[in-house]
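Can anyone check this?
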Amino acid sequence: MKIDRRSFLSFVIGGAAGTALTPLPWKLTDDLSIWSQNWPWTPVPAKGAATYVKSTCTLCPGGCGISVRRVGDRVVKIEGIENHPVNAGGVCALGAAGPQLLYGPNRVQSPKKKVNGQWRNIAWDAALSEIAAKLADLRSKGQSSSLAGICESDRGTVPELLNRFLTVYGSPNFIRTPSIQDNYELALYLTQGVRALPGFNIQDSDFILSFGSGLIEGWESPVYMFRGKSALREKGGRMDQVEPRLSKTAAKSDKWIAVKPGSEGALALGLANVIINEGLFNQDFVDNYSAGVAEFKKNVLDGFSPSVVSKMTGLEVSAIATIARDFSNARKPLAICGRGAGTSPGSLQDFLAVHVLNALVGGINRAGGIVAVPEPDYINWPDVEMDAAASSGMQQPRVDGAGRGKYKSTRYLLNRLPEVVNSAREAPIQVLFVAGANPLYSMADTAAVAQAFDKIPLVVSFSSYMDETSALADFILPNHVFLERYEDVPFARGFPQPFIGLVQPVVEPLFNTRHTGDAIIQLAQKLGGTVGEAFAWDSYDACLEQTLADKWDTLLEEGYWVDAEFSETDQSRRFETDSSKFEFSNSDINALPVYHSVRVPGDESFYPLLLVPYDTMRLASGYIGSPPFLVKSLEDTILKGNDVLVEVNPATAEKLGLADRQYATLATPRDSVKVKIYFFDGIMPGVIAIPRGLGHTAYDKFLAGKGVNYNALSQSLEDAATGLDAAWGVRAKLTKA
């Protein structure tokens, strides 16, 4: 049997992907065992009977149900809960390594205050009193809007408590960290008129067309997506992957469609052109349940012919037509987008292009399609009483510019915050709370982010770990880790049903930490007045039990709650737009008629290459840093010693005079770093790639100082339609070291 070069690469990389999703090979397990013997903090449980606690993993937004095994009072293993609707007994590598985050050496063990640049332990009451005094002073001066809060999510009781605190204090500046959820939620709102979460019925689809989404790299809810991909394969379905690099997802797909970087949205519109021109669209949905079709058709037919899109993407005209026909002729086709693991927002144009592609084939709110999942509505607390300071502060514009002017539909714009702060004579934010996020590592242009945070007089981190943001903060009020606390998980990202998971404590807190919910409640009560009155609960646990009400017993017993009455087919004709239909075009959807591919920052003459990031399940790249087992399991094509390897096509390297495994200097407009070259035929010429999740400057010796943080090399690029960061890469150059 003859195998061409591309098929061979897919076979090899796909094999590696398969290994990554199955139990670790014996040799690697042995290596990990030997390696871990050097860790004095590794717990050795006493012999005894095992007990199990059902809980929910919070290490990513996936919402997986976990069964935690204990021997005595020691956690020894984390497994998935059998028959759980999200992960059905599965668990990813990060979830399995959760005990290391409980017992690891980089935990913050007590409240800390920075004094003359040095950390000092401080009592909880003293820390909360000092912070409350600063907040009271700002409020008395009419500066309540100078308080801001950054949180990974805006849903669930802890984010809602923080948002409630800001509101009754008098600040509109609650900010969620960015991800593809920003654009997916906007796409649902602009076309369907609903404030909803995107759900993807992967398991019922028979053709998935993925525009760069890493279903094997941790996209949305990772284990749920693994299950969906497996179900697709078992029933003979098909998946095509569109991206310029042969990722593990591309290697495990039926077809890798290599396109020019940044042209994915153009391809979606080119496919729409063929589907419309050849009459392959779903006649019933388009004729009876949609509006603005004529204008959309005209724009697509006029501007996105296969010949035009061929030049934009690098694909042959015939290939574009074939993909369009195969997709539209499938029984339940589903198009998805959001590059890699989905931690970066991207361009609204791309998301709308892919979303309307689903609409053309009738894949909106149906089995096997994209589902508008209602936002959680179980948090029904009493309204807060707004005093004069709160009312005045809430009338001030948001510091990030979201929700007004040309960004009126965008809810949060964290990417705009560094420039706003750095360009101001006096910082518009005087106090910043950061909970469940690490923006000094995860945001683009980390140097600019650090400069902005350094200008803020008081930064309070609620992190469990000494991460980059904690290291720069003025106070750390450490949270319990997820194995030590109660908390609600109000959704599993990408799961197509309303869902609530319950985090339950498996062990008593090991250190002098405190639940972030309790810290917020106690801080409010120290401020007193209407702020304190808005937080009448005795504790966070009491607040949680009261909030979950009739769902509490089910959550305690099962570990999760799913709305059994919800059905995507029941929602299939409910659109809350002005027309009461799906809107292909309206006055707010001004992105598609003038579509253009986003050009990344940098001077092409000086930086001739395109640097893109890639994700891997073996590296965490958000708030949680990778535990040692994940770092140890990295291939030496990603990390060798402390050196990161940059993927380079051999043809590109030959032009630059670079050899495989040679040291080189990688430079972008933001920074230059030392890297090693890795020849990789699975990346397009002129494009180079490094992984997300390395290059930490904080945490511990097992993670800090290894590799390079892509975000330190990148820079933000505002989407003209939303203000969100639309940069998918950055211009770069490689030279001999």
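Reply from J.R.: I decoded it. The mean pLDDT is 92.
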